[in-house]
Amino acid sequence: MRRRVLPGFGLSLGYALAYLGLIVLLPLAALAWKASGIGPHGLVRLLSAPRTLAALRLSIGGAVVAALFNVAIGLLVGWVLVRYRFPGRRLLDALVDLPFALPTAVAGIALSTLYSPNGWVGAFLEPFGIKVAYTRLGVFVAMVFVGFPFVVRTLQPVLASLEREVEEAAESLGARRWQTFFRVILPMLAPTLLTGFALAMARAVGEYGSVIFIAGNIPMHSEIAPLLIVQKLEEFDYAGAAALGAAMLLLSFVLLILVALLQRWSNRWAEVSQ
Amino acid sequence: MSARPRQRKPGLPRRLVHVVLILFALVFLLLFLVLPLATVFVEAFRQGVLPYLSAIREPEALAAIRLTLLVAVIAVPLNVVFGLAAAWAMTRFEFRGKALLGALIDLPFSVSPVISGLVYVLLFGAQGWFGPWLDAHGVKIIFAVPGLVLATVFITLPFVARELIPLMQAQGSEEEEAARVLGAGGWQMFFRVTLPNIRWALLYGVLLCNARAMGEFGAVSVVSGHIRGLTTTMPLEVEMRYNEYDYVGAFAVASLLALLALVTLGVKTLLEWRYRGELAAHAPGGH
């Protein structure tokens, strides 16, 4: 074994592990322990309660729909930012990160005001009978807002490294532009788009701050799962809150593993195609 | 098949397609990013400058600003030290379970903010693991400042480490090894070689960590108890004022947070533009 020239292995690793243990692992152990206190019957009763089901359906369903929308709009914005040159492009590019930087409570009250019936956008939609604030549509809008940068930022480096020759080859073989896009470019971007989808969805599923202001939080209708956890805590139902929290955490882990697998797949894809 | 060259139908002129796509993107960015940001400032100044100023000078607002700064001043340095230690261990040495450690560092990004607060309530709350013991000894963590700090530390834990690890991996350890061979002590090597090499990436990580620490809402809302003037950080003050229909007051405090976000974005863009080579290649940032 090679003698270590660099110092501090024991210190740095020991400190990092102790810190992670105290800040992350110990609290998660408490979550697992409290959640298990509810028992299998309690868990089934909790997860099959109509209000829980409605909240989970809204959080998961809303996150899926918002992530799908973000994939489409993220592809458009990413494409425009990478491929075209126009005045103000750099500013827009920097602005894409706004949802990462803007505190969720601020985003929440701003979106809620903007889309309420007398807000700038809400007043415009009102005559068409479209209500956004205090409905499920509001939940969707907030989820789109928080998930949007994930798709664009995942996509941009891949779009920038796409070989133009492939597109030119397709065009010289007689493909129309839309054919080139759907048959050549889109398949090459598929793994990246899926990664962006999973990241945006993972973020939206657990989102709280930006959603609760615009959602109206009507039980069984526009109440998201994280809010239900908060409410169980306020009723001192610790076991119920912990169980619901553990179930949501499990869902996030599944998404996370999915992202890791997708990234490995897309890396291999990139190696094969070179 | 005949060898006749295919006739291309004249499609839309390329230029027109570009303009239409750019316009679509602009409309979306306007509706979803620019307008919400503008709303914050317009609503804050709806009744003029004086009501705005008095709204942010109220004692509760000042207490919230002080508390937010206090939480960030504790949480950010803690995560800087952790980030440096974790990055040093992970990029300079080989050991088993490294991938697992990396996954653990990223974990807080994939946890819902509400759950990040919940876990500390389960640990230190009245019915939590250590609740009765803490109560007997008169220590308050939940519904008090220590709980706010813990929840914030949890949420912002990955930012610095995540920024440093890929950069230090890419830089390699040759310069540090050379310093050691030439007789530098451990800390001497760290302050003279390692730190100067990673300074911009460290600043970048601190910037994002701080923005998140000051703006966190879900996690601190669970552990705060919303005691006005004592455990309400700025985002919580925004929420309470908004729920009391004090819109000018809510948006006035929110405008300070929005300003922080804009400054963060500005400095971040500047760092990316000026020191791109000294920053890590990025995966999109977290929650």
UniProtKB/TrEMBL annotation, chain A:
Q: Which residues cross the membrane?
A: 12-33, 53-82, 94-114, 134-152, 181-202, 241-262
Q: Which residues form the ABC transmembrane type-1 domain?
A: 56-259
Q: Does the keyword Plastid apply?
A: no
The residues forming the signal peptide are none
Q: Kindly give the PROSITE patterns that the UniProt entry links to this protein.
A: ABC_TM1 (PS50928)
**Superkingdom as given in the UniProt entry:** Bacteria
**GO CC terms of this entry:** plasma membrane
Cited function: Part of the ABC transporter complex (TC 3.A.1.6.1) involved in sulfate/thiosulfate import.
Q: Which family does it belong to?
A: Belongs to the binding-protein-dependent transport system permease family. CysTW subfamily.
Binding partners and assembly: The complex is composed of two ATP-binding proteins (CysA), two transmembrane proteins (CysT and CysW) and a solute-binding protein (CysP).
- Name assigned to this protein: Sulfate transport system permease protein CysT
Q: Supply the source organism for this entry.
A: Dyella solisilvae
Tell me the gene name. Answer: cysT
UniProtKB/TrEMBL annotation, chain B:
Q: Which NCBIfam families match?
A: 3a0106s02 (TIGR00969), permease_CysW (TIGR02140)
Tell me the function of this protein.
Answer: Part of the ABC transporter complex CysAWTP (TC 3.A.1.6.1) involved in sulfate/thiosulfate import. Probably responsible for the translocation of the substrate across the membrane.
Species of origin reads: Dyella solisilvae
Q: How does it sit in the membrane?
A: Multi-pass membrane protein
Q: Where in the cell is it found?
A: Cell inner membrane
Domain ABC transmembrane type-1 residues, every copy: 65-266
- Primary location group: membrane
Question: Among the entry's GO cellular component annotations, what is one?
Answer: plasma membrane
From which lineage does this chain's organism come? Answer: Bacteria, Pseudomonadati, Pseudomonadota, Gammaproteobacteria, Lysobacterales
**Example GO molecular function:** ABC-type sulfate transporter activity
One Pfam family this sequence matches: BPD_transp_1
> Which keywords label this protein?
Cell inner membrane, Cell membrane, Membrane, Sulfate transport, Transmembrane, Transmembrane helix, Transport
Q: What is this protein called?
A: Sulfate transport system permease protein CysW
Q: Which CDD domains match?
A: TM_PBP2
TM annotation in the entry: 20-42, 62-88, 100-121, 141-161, 247-267
Q: Which Gene3D superfamilies match?
A: MetI-like (1.10.3720.10)
Question: SUPFAM superfamilies, per this entry?
Answer: MetI-like
Subunit structure of this chain's protein: The complex is composed of two ATP-binding proteins (CysA), two transmembrane proteins (CysT and CysW) and a solute-binding protein (CysP).
